[in-house]
Amino acid sequence: MAKTGVYTFLVCVLMGVTAYASFYIAPTESTMGLVQRIFYLHAPSGMVSLMAFMISCIGSVAYILTRKPKWDWLAVSSAEVGVAFCTVVLLTGPIWAHPAWGVWWAWDARLTSTLVLWLLYVAFLILRTMIDDADRRALVSAFFGVFTFLDVPLVYGSIWWWRTQHPQPVVFTSAGLDPTMRKVFYLSWLSLTCLMALLIRQRYELESSREELRTLEQELEAT
Amino acid sequence: MRLLANTTALLGKELQTEFRSRELLITTMFFVLTVIALFSITFDAAVSDPKNVGPGLLWLAILFSSSLMLQPCFLKERTNDTLSALRLSVGDPFAIFLAKLVANVCLLLITELLALPIFAVFFNVKIMRVFPQLMLVFLLGSIGIAVTGTALSAISSQARMRELLLPMLLLPLLVPILLASTEATVALLGENPALRLDWMAILAAFDLVFLTALWLFGEYLLEE
Amino acid sequence: MRRNARAPSESCETWCEADAVSERIGRPAGLKFTKIEKRFGSLYALRRLDLEIAPGECVALTGRNGSGKTTLLRVASQLTRPTRGELSFPGLKDGAVPAIGYVAHAIMLYEELTAEENLQLFGRLLGIAEPRRRALELLESANLATRATSLVRTFSRGMKQRLAIARALLSDPGVLMLDEPATGLDTESMAWLRNRIRELRDQGRTIVMSVHGESALSQLATRAARLDAGTLVADTRGGATFQSVFAVGEA
């Protein structure tokens, strides 16, 4: 308990430092000005969500092979956290795009891929709500989780290739990052990764407690 | 090899059952036609750029139709619990998937063979000169749709809201197929028709990856 | 009059043919359930069940609805994987699985196909030599030869049940699992069923059938057992009488 508390505090501190750095330490970008700072939230969130989805896939594969419920808990926890970070990417995109380029949405490779990824993992979560039996749900969603993760490189690859064939003006990058900017970017990435780990851990504990409760209820019923 | 024998026997059953009633095939064909017609009206095929917009709409029509056509695939095995009978009789459960997958590819190809000329008429495109290449694109695309669709049919037959669930799960998964097939089709219908090997490679990669995944993990879907 | 457990028949003809079928063996085998548990979500269908069935025994399994009979039969047929516990086949070499015939509540047949097509399909899948001949043979013994080319959709409940049993017998299994086989049968089919099960029992096959209390079928059994809430509560092998096993209020 205490350990979690300390870790949470550290994550908060780290996030605070990152926020400060994004606003005060990173230099202002020449063309876009203040709004560009959202990049320090937008891009790392994308990477962190991918990491979370990868963890989810590992959980899915491990569940299929071992059938231990803890892997299913890991799969659903990291999928939910991944969707959360993915949502951040999709929300910060338009917030950045509109003042900077005058459009709400641009079908560039990264944003398009993120959208499809978001759809896939939301589908994963909805699938889980449609199956009542816990073991069935775990197995079936593990299978879909594997399918989804196998699709990710194909989605990213095909969309990237599609954009290369039909190029658009490049948006959503901070091409040619200045060294200080780069440092802030990495700091943000680190703090968001720590946040991801914390959230996955908490969600996992919740799932584990639910299962424990269910087992206790059954044992009570049996007597 | 027992897997091959089992698959052939089951494939025979699947096709025989379908061709006896022809219900699924006819309904799917008319659905495809309806969707293509509606798309043509909405996007005003006469005015907008048919060669570039058309193929995307055609493939969308195919995708929507297949997500409906693939519903009964495993659902019908639940009526009299014939799925249990199959599981008890076959050696390798993958034979069940393989047979249904091949049957679905056949049904999809038949549907597409009908949709293609209608599409050519509505959108005023020349398909005959590139017909063999087009069929290759449709084959690879259909395999991708069938592999994922058959697996997801097994999944959705175990869940609630299955009529909505299958399309919801299938369509995002098929984005690479949609993109690659559309691009390949556009290239074949353009001024200088060319078979785009890069897009064909993506289609082939998709088919291979998911077929392998189905082979490795499919039997777990049939478990109780 | 109750019978003692019978030894498997000496004659090997039909089972030797089954040997050529696949890796599965068509000899009557015993079953051993060790601490079998099966959970469906938050519902325990079977709880720490221990049960041993000797080769050639004819067991009548009884119990209320929801006591776990169907689940037990499905676990035995290897259709349902137990959450915990082990099912083994004593007497067979390691890993070998006997050919098991399973008849369920559902008919497990394709209604859009004819009787003959159904049996031929499953025969081919099982890898039986000459599936057509075997199919016609089984249709003959099920009194369905005249309806061989009719769609199963047109069959009565009794006919469907006879065909379902024919399907279960395709691989000439040494072990049979019958889930309430008498449900919904008319008198003629019931008489046929009774004779058929007696025949199969006398051939020495291991039979486990779930029944609803004492009936014409349960009288054929050499042993009776009762399940309640997923556990074994009474067993004639453990010394209880047939009457006491079937006694408590039936569903």
Structure notes:
The complex is a heterotrimer of chains A (223), B (224) and C (251). By secondary structure, chain A is an all-alpha fold. Chain A has one domain (2-166, 178-217). Chain A contains six helices and no strands. In chain A, helix 2 (39-66) runs antiparallel to helix 3. The mean pLDDT of chain A is 88. Chain B has 224 residues and is an all-alpha fold. Chain B is built from ten helices and no strands. Chain B has helices spanning 2-21, 23-42, 50-69, 72-75, 82-89, 94-123, 131-156, 162-173, 175-189, 197-222. Chain B is globular and about 55 Å long. The mean pLDDT of chain B is 92. In chain C, helix 3 (115-126) packs across helix 4 and helix 5 (157-168) runs parallel beside helix 6. Chain C is globular and about 45 Å long. Chain C has helices at 13-19, 69-76, 115-126, 131-141, 157-168, 187-202, 242-247; strands at residues 31-40, 43-53, 58-62, 84-88, 100-103, 175-179, 206-210, 223-228, 231-235. The two termini of chain C are 25 Å apart. Chains A and B meet through helix 4 and helix 5 of A and helix 7, helix 8, helix 9 and helix 10 of B.
**Biggest interface found:** A-B, 28 and 30 residues
The separation of the N and C termini of chain B measures 27 Å
> Would you state the CATH class of the largest domain in chain C?
Alpha Beta
Strand content bin of chain B: under 5%
Q: Would you identify the regions of chain C where 5 or more consecutive residues have pLDDT less than 50?
A: 1-25
Architecture of the largest domain in chain C, CATH level 2?
3-Layer(aba) Sandwich
Helix content of chain B: over 70%
Q: How many discrete structural domains of chain B? A: 1
What gross morphology of chain C would you assign? globular
DSSP summary, beta strand count of chain C: 9
Strand tally of chain B, please? 0
Task: Tell me the distance between the termini of chain C.
Answer: 25 Å
- Structural class based on helices, strands and sheet pairing of chain C: alpha/beta
Query: What is the count of DSSP helices of chain B, taking H or I runs of 4+ residues?
Result: 10
- Sketch the topology of chain C as an H/E string, one letter per element: HEEEHEEHHHEHEEEH
Strand content of chain C: 15-25%
Mean pLDDT of chain C: 84
